[in-house]
Here is the input.
Amino acid sequence: MKTLKQYKEKQMQNPSFAKEYEAIQPELNVIRTIIDARTSQNITQKELSERTGINQADISKLENGTRNPTIKLLQRLADGMGMTLKIEFIPKQNM
Here is the structure.
């Protein structure tokens, strides 16, 4: 049986898969950052909802990738976790 890592490595050899995978990385990075920030503080989605006034179901949708956040929503989440929202543009690495 293949591991997920092995499966991904094989799929990344397909140029169309690799292109699509790279295209979704910014969204996945935002999702991972939200989840990591929340869990590092041992805050449940419900607690974050209470702190921010954002519906818990909407937080869940953000974290599972079925809702795209606005900058304003990201700012509310950051405020609710006592954090500062920072957005950076980073030069692409040569492949």
